[in-house]
Design goal:
Layout (H helix, E strand, L loop, with lengths): L1 H9 L4 E4 L3 H14 L3 E4 L3 H7 L5 E5 L4 H14 L4 E6 L3 H9 L2 E9 L7 E10 L9
Parallel strand pairs: 1-2, 3-4
Antiparallel strand pairs: 4-6, 5-6
């Protein structure tokens, strides 16, 4: 929402907000109307979003899933857009999430310390791709 408000001040860009909780989606619509934010709310689950929103330049998420699952959610967009940027807010266990994800995914990573929460970070990821797994029975 903050990005959409900033875009309105700059006069360009667009944000598609995916929120499956109808009460939260309604609040976001009200905030858009009040602020003039450059955004639309889609009351769908993230798993459905790739059909409704086939292209994007950046994805952000907070408190949605662990990093491995977030990368699985973003994979369809990353395949279509090799320049896709992702920004994921993570808490104190972020290093374990990175280690787990590195087993299945390749990505460039920049870790930004949170200015608000001391144990939190923003993970900036790019060049996301699934690591090929050997076929079962292959030697």
């Amino acid at each position: 929402m903050i990005t959409a408000i900033l875009l309105a001040e700059q006069g360009g860009g667009w944000v598609d907000l995916v929120e499956s909780n109808h009460k939260k989606a309604s609040f976001l619509r009200m905030a858009i109307a009040e602020t003039g934010a450059r955004a639309a709310v889609h009351p769908i689950r993230i798993e459905e979003a790739q059909q409704k929103l086939p292209e994007c330049d950046a994805i952000s998420a907070r408190a949605l899933a662990d990093l491995d699952q977030l990368l699985a959610f973003t994979e369809p967009w990353a395949k279509r857009n090799p320049l896709l940027q992702c920004y994921f807010h993570k808490g104190r266990d972020y290093r374990a999430e990175i280690d787990k994800a590195r087993g299945r995914w390749s990505f460039d990573l920049v870790i930004h310390e949170s200015a608000i929460e001391p144990d939190s970070v923003i993970l900036e990821l790019a060049t996301i791709r699934r690591i090929s797994q050997p076929a079962s029975g292959a030697e």
